[in-house]
UniProtKB/TrEMBL annotation:
Species name: Clostridium yunnanense
Database matches in InterPro entries: FAD/NAD-bd_sf, HdrA-like
Keyword terms: 4Fe-4S, Iron, Iron-sulfur, Metal-binding, Oxidoreductase
Gene3D superfamilies for this protein: FAD/NAD(P)-binding domain (3.50.50.60)
Protein name: FAD-dependent oxidoreductase
């Protein structure tokens, strides 16, 4: 039977970390699931944008992103033959679970296997372009690919597009960016090879520089040889012997929902890479002979829409470490909001919110179930970066580990509701929480 003639319990739109978490959780809990993805692979920003490393999975003391997200991380590490030479227990925990380099090709295979093994159906090279809805209930989703347009029927939708595309198509309310209508800068990540690892590691040990290459940038600026308008410089991650990935270079005042803006960002980013590599060769020992291997298929996007949900998380919730009774995930990443335009760029970050908002080891905040539910819509739930929050709070949970967690919660909730024949708002929260714990999720 054709995919288009089936009726699914749930359709997941978007195959990034939130979509993977949602699809796998729903399928493992007995739902009939279809996952739609516009590329020919899963992973979202980790693969489509070649982001070089996962943000932290721990709160500085213990792993707090568990369940499907942790399963993916461990499988990728095994596939990549990842190992850590650090022996100290506390440091080892961080080293094994925080800022882990992403092996893009290994991750693609791992995600294929985990999703397909769960029983989820995947439809690549397909975009969800519209919905068929009635009184806040979505009856079908409209998809488009080389075969043309088709409607696929479903009971529930999980919007994991990263941009709340399905919520908008269904008439849901949302916010976008800051008060000027601007969002965080975008970045084209890339990989370099031909690195002298001994010289590079010795430089890191003796210079006091970090993976952000802060001191190298400062020296280049003093010599008027660093002309990029950067907030804090490079995210530098050693991915393999002689190979590193860089999250390095911002393009400002880009609306990622506009093809014209994204085109400008892609072209400008690629144009800047040779000069960045010249800087690396001159100012970072061990990179004298570095060469470009590849850049991401697309620029990395940090921010677009945020839904208006049943509850709106705020920076006050972050700083108060609020414990919600309907918590479905925990996280502890700082508030990380990159500038939207060049006039906001600062070179010293001692007073930057990313630094001042850091939690003490062992602290974390909760993400309530209500933030996943768009106001006015009945059978759609959202996971990933567009969940309901203010812009500062979004700066913390927008990253991939948290997206895995909210995705798993959304998929589990939908599967329970499908079995019981109830609406998403009628779910018994304790039942959802208990099921998440059984799956390995950490709720504190």
């Amino acid at each position: 039977m054709s995919i288009y003639s089936e009726k699914y319990d749930v359709i997941v739109a978007g195959g990034g970390p939130s979509g993977v978490g949602a699809a796998v959780a729903a399928a493992r809990n007995g739902a009939k699931v279809l996952l739609i993805e516009k590329y020919g692979f899963l992973g979202g920003m980790a693969t489509a944008a070649a982001v070089p490393a996962f943000c932290p999975y721990t709160d500085g003391e213990k792993v707090i992103i568990k369940g499907i997200g942790l399963e993916v991380l461990e499988a990728m590490k095994k596939e990549s033959n990842y190992d850590s030479p650090i022996k100290d227990k506390k440091e080892l925990i961080k080293r094994m679970y925080d800022w882990i380099p992403i092996d893009t090709e290994a991750l693609k295979r791992v995600l294929d296997n985990i999703v397909l093994d769960s029983g989820t159906n995947i439809l690549f090279h397909t975009v969800a372009t519209d919905v068929v809805s009635e009184d806040g209930n979505i009856k079908a989703i409209v998809v488009e690919n080389k075969e043309g347009k088709n409607e696929i029927r479903c009971k529930y939708i999980i919007d994991c597009t990263g941009d709340a595309d399905i919520v908008v198509k269904a008439g849901g309310e949302h916010e976008y960016g800051d008060e000027e209508g601007l969002v965080q800068a975008v970045t084209l990540c890339y990989r370099i090879s031909n690195i002298n690892m001994e010289r590079l590691i010795e430089y890191f040990k003796t210079s006091g520089d970090t993976g952000n290459l802060t001191k190298a940038v400062e020296r280049a600026r003093l010599n008027n040889e660093f002309n990029f308008k950067e907030k804090h410089v490079a995210g530098f991650s050693i991915q393999n012997d002689g190979v590193a990935g860089l999250n390095f270079g911002h393009v400002y005042e880009v609306n990622p929902l506009k093809a014209e803006d994204m085109t400008r960002a892609e072209v400008e980013s690629r144009r800047n890479i040779p000069a960045m590599i010249d800087f690396l060769r001159k100012y970072v020992p061990g990179l004298e002979n570095a060469v470009l291997v590849s850049s991401g298929p697309m620029v990395g996007v940090r921010e677009t829409r945020r839904i208006i949900g049943d509850y709106r998380l705020t920076a006050r919730d972050y700083f108060d470490r609020v414990e919600y009774e309907d918590s479905i995930a925990r996280y502890a990443y700082p508030i990380d909001v990159h500038p939207s335009k060049t006039r906001d760029v600062i070179y010293k970050d001692e007073n930057d919110q990313y630094v001042t908002s850091r939690y003490k080891p062992g602290e974390s905040y909760t993400i309530p179930y209500r933030t996943l539910l768009p106001k006015g819509l009945k059978n759609i739930i959202v996971a990933g970066r567009p969940i309901s929050a203010d812009r500062a709070m979004h700066g913390s949970f927008r990253v991939m580990p948290a997206c895995f967690a909210t995705g798993e919660a959304a998929g589990t909730a939908v599967a329970i509701c499908s079995k019981e024949g109830i609406e998403l708002r009628d779910i018994e929260i304790k039942k959802l929480q208990e099921q998440l714990k059984k799956q390995g999720a950490y709720l504190g």
